[in-house]
Structures are given as structure tokens and as C-alpha cells.
Specification:
3-stranded antiparallel beta sheet
């Protein structure tokens, strides 16, 4: 185990060492069946019982009420860019069959690369998209996603088919929190006063790092597992029951036909087992959830995340005063899970990355679209590992400040 690197990658990201050790046993013999988890039938009683346990722990940790169903599927968050549009347009068609297509509006809050892609996919599928807010308008160059819009920047439609936001833009490092105590908070007070809001939240990056305020107000929350919970391949959906609709009935009224494996009703009617789910990813996710429960649940992880993020931002601010680092995000809009910054000076980014890798710190190079450094501190990155990075940042800043003179 001494040869393992510290994984600061944005995903697939770090997993708890004890869970990985347990996974190796399950690969050979899953729960005493004598069959490995990658080989066992997804319809076996052993696996279906295990899947029920995974759902139970998600409900327990997030306090998901019976008003919402938990579904397991494939395709990652990017597939949900399409699926949420199709399912919510079908719901809107059933609620308002008399409306013309151009009057079925989809509201998108665009605060970074992923929400931008989601809005583009909605347009590509023929949706009438209203950009309810765009953080680029508040940036210095009118191009950067470096902030969360203030409340006066929003313009929501009267009766949209959906209202979409991304809680944590991993590429850009901005965080859009549904927690109203945060300065970068979703403006719930501006939303239509409807008991059944069509609110859709992509929580892939922050899922299971802390409780989700206003969870019951959401129509859909979805998250890829490969950040905080498991390997790539599994997407978890929390869908309010009134949004699980008969998409074929909606199609007969003129809605876009929904591919059967993208229909939430298909997933719900078959307990997420209509086709073979990502069995191995579900197994690892279940072990991670059990590990989380043992450590104290989301209150434990929220505290851990807060401490790790604060330490990194403090080190970043110190590096900025030395003229070595520069944050890519305005103060107050930074992500707790993904800290992004530039290393100033010709060739200095390469030196920083190389020095980190010499110290067995991997995955720090920023996304190819924005460059710089991206530090992802998902749940399995320990506070001790974070402290090692901070010590390196402080040493690097001190050394290169001295060389400027």
C-alpha cells in the first residue's frame, strides 16, 4: 500500500483503501455465493437484496422521503442531459396538452462548462431554452465562468417544463449551493410558487459530501458515482414520483418519443433492472455507503470537506500574496470539492505539476479546456493527504517568491 499515490483527480477519483481491499474479496466471492461480483446475475436474489441495501443507505444518509424514488442507471451525467429533457417534456405534455411546442420552455442556469453543455443538449433536442442566468455576464471578460450570479441576475419562466442547475462545476471550480446560507446559493425565493417545482439538479461532484437542502423541492437530482461513491459507470437518480410518467402516453399526444432505457418509468417499474445495470459499480458504491455510515454519515463528511477546502483556500490565498498562484474563481463562488488556480510565470505550471508528482500527488493538472491546476478533494481524499498538498503549495510559493527578486 505504500506505493499508492495520492489521487487528487476529478474522476474517476479516489476511493477508500479499506473499501478497495474489500472489493478484491468480492471479485472472487460475492457475499458467500462462490461467484465473483463481476460474474453474478443481476437478477439473483443475492444481488437484488444488495441493491435494496444500497437504496436504503442512500435514503438514510440523505433523508430521502417516500415522495421520491431512487433509480440506478448507466451513461453518466451527460446522458441525463438528454434524459431529463425528454422525461420532463413528456410530463409537461401530459399536464398541458394544449400548448404549442415553442411554448414549452426549459430554464437553464448556466454557471460553468457542464451546465453550458446541458443547455446545448436541450437546444439540440429541439427544446425552447431560456437561459435564466449566465455567470459569464458577471465576469470581467464576459467569457469566464468564475462566479455565481447574484439574485438580481435571474429571469425564470412562468411555467417551465424544467429548471436546471449544476451544483458544482468541476471544470471551472465554481459551486452553486442549494444551501441558502451560502453566498453562492440557488435563489429559491425567486422560483414560481408551485408545490411541484420542476427543479433539476446535477449534483455529480458534491453528491454524498454533505446533506442536500431542499431535496424534497427537487423534481430530479442526479449524480455520477465516480466522484465520491464508486467507479465510473453508475448514475444515481432521485426522482419525485410525479415526474415518473407514462412517456408513451405523452408521445401519443405529440411529445418526443423517449428511448425505453432513458424512460424513468422503465427504470422505476423494473426496480432499475430492466437491463443489466453496472453491477460492479453498484457493488463498490454499496461498500462506500456502508463505510460512510460507519464513520458518522454526511455530518462527518461535511465537516471533513469544510476543513480540507478551507486549508487549501488559505494556502492559495497565501500563494496569491506572494505572486505565485492566482485563483480562477471569484471569492465566495469557489467550489469546496474542486479548487482551481493558475501558477504564474513561464513554465511554472509544469514545475508545480512535476514537483507534485515527485511527491506521489497525481491528477492535479487542470482540465484541458481551462488549464492551470485543479485540486479535487472528494470524500476519500483524507485530511492528512490534503495537508501534504498544502505543505507542498506553501513550500513552492515560498521558494518561487524568493526567486523573483
Amino acid at each position: 500500500m505504500e506505493s499508492r499515490a495520492i489521487n487528487f483527480g476529478a474522476g474517476p477519483s479516489a476511493l477508500p483503501t479499506s473499501v478497495l481491499q474489500e472489493v478484491t474479496k468480492g471479485l472472487l466471492n460475492f457475499n458467500g455465493t462462490g461467484i465473483g461480483i463481476a460474474e453474478i446475475s443481476h437478477r439473483s436474489k443475492e444481488f437484488t437484496t444488495y441493491l435494496q441495501g444500497v437504496e436504503h443507505n442512500i435514503r438514510k444518509l440523505l433523508d430521502v422521503q417516500p415522495t421520491h424514488s431512487i433509480l440506478f442507471t448507466q451513461g453518466g451525467g451527460s446522458t441525463q442531459f438528454s434524459a431529463v429533457v425528454l422525461n420532463m417534456l413528456a410530463r409537461h405534455r401530459l399536464l398541458h396538452p394544449e400548448l404549442k411546442d415553442e411554448d414549452r420552455v426549459l430554464d437553464y442556469v448556466v454557471t460553468g462548462s457542464w451546465s453550458k453543455k446541458a443547455a446545448e443538449e436541450a437546444r439540440r433536442m429541439g427544446g425552447s431554452v431560456n437561459i435564466a442566468a449566465d455567470s459569464r455576464k458577471s465576469s470581467k471578460d464576459k467569457k469566464a465562468f468564475d462566479n455565481i450570479p447574484t439574485a438580481d441576475a435571474y429571469s425564470f419562466s412562468k411555467d417551465p417544463a424544467l429548471i436546471y442547475y449544476c451544483a458544482n462545476e468541476t471544470v471551472d471550480g465554481v459551486e452553486f449551493s442549494p444551501d441558502e446560507t451560502s453566498p453562492a446559493s440557488f435563489p429559491f425565493h425567486l422560483l414560481p410558487k408551485d408545490a411541484l417545482l420542476p427543479l433539476v439538479g446535477d449534483h455529480s461532484s458534491s453528491f454524498m459530501s454533505r446533506p442536500i437542502p431542499h431535496l424534497s423541492d427537487h423534481a430530479i437530482i442526479y449524480a455520477g458515482a465516480q466522484k465520491n461513491l464508486g467507479p465510473a459507470g453508475l448514475t444515481i437518480l432521485i426522482v419525485r414520483n410525479d415526474c415518473i410518467v407514462d412517456v408513451d402516453a405523452a408521445a401519443r399526444l405529440g411529445a418526443i418519443p423517449v428511448p425505453i432505457c432513458l424512460s424513468y418509468k422503465t427504470l422505476a417499474d423494473h426496480n432499475s433492472l430492466y437491463n443489466t445495470p453496472p453491477v460492479l459499480s453498484i457493488y463498490v458504491t454499496g461498500l462506500v455507503l456502508e463505510h460512510m455510515v460507519q464513520l458518522g454519515g454526511l455530518d462527518y463528511y461535511a465537516g471533513l470537506t469544510n476543513r480540507k477546502a478551507k486549508k487549501i483556500y488559505d494556502a492559495l490565498k497565501d500563494g496569491e500574496t506572494k505572486g505565485v498562484f492566482k485563483s480562477k474563481v471569484k471569492e465566495g463562488s469557489g467550489s469546496q470539492m474542486n479548487v482551481v488556480f493558475d501558477v504564474l510565470g513561464e513554465g511554472m505550471l509544469g514545475k508545480f505539476i512535476a514537483g507534485a508528482e515527485e511527491r506521489a500527488m497525481k491528477g492535479l493538472k487542470g482540465h484541458r479546456s481551462v488549464g492551470g491546476v485543479r485540486v479535487s478533494i472528494y470524500n476519500a481524499v483524507t485530511e492528512q493527504e490534503t495537508d501534504q498538498l498544502i505543505a507542498y503549495m506553501e513550500q513552492f510559493a515560498e521558494r518561487h517568491e524568493a526567486h523573483k527578486e
